[in-house]
Give the backbone structure.
Amino acid sequence: MNLQQQLEQSSIPLPARKWTIYAIHHSHTDLGYTERQEKIEQYHVDFIRQALRIVQDAHNGTNPDWDGFRWTCETFWAVEQFLQQASADEQQDFAEAVQRGDIELSGTYLNMTELPDYDLLSKIHSKAQAYARSIGHQVDSAMTADINGYSWGYADSLLQNGIQHLFSCIHTHHGMYPLGRKQLPFWWESLSGERLLVWNGEHYMFGNELGLCPGALGKYMIRDEFNHKLVEPGEIHDQIANIRIHRYLTQLEAEQYPYPFVPVMLSGLPTDNGAPNSAIIEWIGQWNRQHGEQISIEMVSLSQFFERLKQEGLDELPVHAGDWPDWWTDGVSSTPMHTQIYRDAQRTLRKVEKLDPQRKHVSEQELESVEQALVLYAEHTWGYHSSIYEPWHKNVQMLEVRKQAHAAEASRLAYRALDAVLLAENGATLYPGRPYRFRVTNTSELEITELVQLRLEAWEPDELRSGVEVIREDTGEVLPMQSSQPQIIITDLTLKGLQTCMLTLRPLPQKSASTGITVSNTKLVGSDRVYDMADIYHVMPAGAAASPITWSQHGLESPFLSLKWSETGGITSWYDKEAGKELLRPDAQYGAFTPVYEVTVPAAESEASEVWGIRSRMGRNRKGLGVQRSIGRLASVKEQDNGPLYATLELRYQLQGISYFSLFLKVYAKTSRVDISVRFHKDSVWNPENVYLALPFTAGDSKQETLYADKPGGLVRPWRDQIPGSCLDYSAVQAGIAWQDEERSLMLATPDTPLIQLGSLDYGTRQVHTQQQSEASPETYAWLMTNYWETNFKATLGGFYEFQFYIVTGDKMPPASIASSLQGLIDPFVVTRSRD
């Protein structure tokens, strides 16, 4: 049966009510999905020029058929690029078109992942409004496309910048819309208690599928009998559009959709990064002349649509408060090293702002350059569209390098700004006779006790071969110290919030020749150097600094913690001596920080089409039905250092897909803290993979405790503080997560890896919020890396990596203090060599 016969036999249902379709014309901004980033920038600048010509010709009567054309600038980034390149006349024409409402500004800057912190979100959300004010205009609406979620603080960021409405264009590829229903409005109550009016919309090119744009008929969400690839503009296109529009509106009525209107987004070309198209408004005119009495179509701006929605009354709209986790932020873990660099650069930028609040040493322009590089890395597009299918393609390689270069540039600029501030504050460059003097500043607002590293140059330990003391200049006290490497001296330092102090290394008097090292008669370590028994007699040589931490092949004891491990279970016990509580869940499937590797192997592994195809069938599981899971097996334990301040042990694991994997546990002697360094060499594999670290922690009572996540704008309780129907499987965090019961808290800072997997790793039916059986704290994992996406993730994860985690236990604290405490765990002190 040919297409014409299909059309003749297809029934056209008649809607029961009179309908209006509101068409919102835009271009989806994907920086790198369809072309080189700089080429896409060029496109979007020209798209605005094209739209400007269309609305001007409509406004001055040159082409009356274009009357009613509206263009919505999906991202202010595109407007920013246009304004930088436009002539004075173009800038004036654009401002007038915006003031008339022919061209609309969206209050968002780009479609973002959840990497940016709240300060960065607020900064970019202020840009459209600042421009609007400069031309005597007001922006009240914003839209996003492709992404399908936001941190809870996103709402406050928009609201504080005068944005009252958000149109969310959901993309359900490996994701899903919330609330169990799209094409409906709701109030999103922010952390501050204010409310943002949200339209939970359809895919951002759904209007193309309905046929509103001649020559750009799509078939993505609609899967009917028509092959759109054979359709040309003209009668057949119009017949398909007629059938699809009637079917869609009738379906909305069957689903008890409440309104006599519905909005649809559409592009002028059948692609992301598509141009404006005047043929749309011409086609709408023809449609309205034929069908307008029953179904009329109107091209509108975002603001116009929300004004129409408000006419229906908003008092009865549902109110939802909570996080809206984005299903698409997982791309950041396909480039884990650069994401780590991004996060470090973002924190470094915040340190610069605190160290130089008056901008005496770095300019706002310099800081804005850092922010711009951060934004371009955190934008949601994670590569060229064929990154998995043909990872050797020139465009794949070019776009990957450009994307990752933004993280590198942000790091370079942030550290250059930090160096400038430190140098202006008496920082010392390299020169002969430089004093052994260090300036230490606590950039946290909390009082922090930290093990501070004082780094020396390669030749300097020779000058201090008799030993040193660490002197705190403001108090004159000699601080305790430990040094396992000649070039690094570690001391224990307490500073109040935002306090600065100076430390000096004072050489000790010349010592007599060393007496050398001999065998111990009390340390129960054999000639094989295996230390698998606890000492009976704890005897220290005269003059040696005693370590309060002991260990063996089976566990470790500090004054605050007791850890136990085994070959098959890894770290099976993490006991809090102060509280007398076990800090690992009784139902833990894996030991603490046990690595978990997953790979889904296609039937025809060597065929690129199947490497792509098996990923396309994963849905929201992010793995296949036949996923192969390998659990790290503890192979050896080795002491790296042990002194009065801390002990460091290396726990070596073996597992599939990773040729080298070690945990380095730095256990503190004076506090209940452990720093974990995860180092590994990942094999290069083309198949879809995931790498996790098990985090089976509890504050002591896993059934009564609360799990908190530090997200932009404030704390969120995963599986509790969420919009119904939102993603349960994982969340992107800023500083980390924390568990707290009625007595104790356990904080886990995650400076390098933002994704926290929540719940079981098993393949199965996915659930969204309100479908889970319990809101109790779920299982947690650090989701270190993934390459499961079949389009634009980085295809291989191979390489060398090191990721840090910091754990502290203590008394229960107010929830408002948890976020700042987590942030205070991550590099709170800035240390620099200082002049006299």
Notes: The CA atoms of residues 446 and 821 lie 8 Å apart. The chain has 17 helices and 38 strands.
